[in-house]
């Protein structure tokens, strides 16, 4: 098969489409003929040499795919050849084929084109597990989403609105603010012009900035608030005002999805299929696809992500 190899740590030009060995299929694996993958910020960190795949994961980038099941391992009863599926991966999505533990495989939501389903696994599992399973966001509460125009943000805004919450989001331009409002956000703050903590009070915050926003996030939390940190774009070390945390009876969580064991991912994946897929099928939540780029031209897709011009997801199609 062919896959995108990272030939050396560096810029988008290090991504090359090469002939590589086919994946081996373990007894609990599903082999997928890939229709599409999608670009995540983590792929850029991996390309630059800062985010190696966890042990045992394929070396090629790509945290999600959609496609058709080509074969299943001896122990797999849940899927069969010919099924249309999408999957959450620990790596290896930028390829013609990928083998993935069955626990991380999902049916394609009914009515969704196969390629577009590649835009969902990473954002759906990240947002559902962090905002709802860990953050326990409830109907009527307020969610603050940092980076509302990102792949993660566009999904979080829609899902929280669909489940009856008030949503505030931060973005870096007026044009992006407009698009995030169209996705349903009630309040949008341009982080280049205003301090979000002066304007927003939130019960749950989904944070991608880490150190840079820690003090502001604690300030913006309501009593009983939950701050869930999933990204460190603004650094990994900061001072935490424990007094404020105590007074507000607030909690701070941090998680990564990629390094979780297969069984934990399986619990999240099943919960997503049960709780999120019906909303996608009803049209209440949809993947926001900014561009479709041929997979062999993944370098162009990374240039697009690096430029920061995108809103939502960039797909890599076969
Ligand atoms: N822990 C996990 O399991 C997990 C899983 C998935 C993703 N993530 C993290 O989630 C983040 C989003 O991922 P993605 O793939 O959706 O990336 P993406 O589409 O490239 O989005 C990056 C976002 O960061 C925003 N941003 C940059 N500076 C900001 C600031 N000062 N304040 C607020 N927002 C700012 C950008 O907003 P503008 O474009 O509006 O400037 C952009 O929307 C990344 O940090 C990624 O590592 C974590």
From TrEMBL:
UniProt keyword list: NADP, Oxidoreductase
One Pfam family in the UniProt entry: ADH_zinc_N
Record carries keyword Repeat: no
Claim: Oxidoreductase is one of the keywords in the record: yes
Domain Enoyl reductase (ER): 10-316
Coiled-coil ranges from the UniProt annotation: none
Domain of life: Bacteria
Protein name, per record: NAD(P)H-quinone oxidoreductase
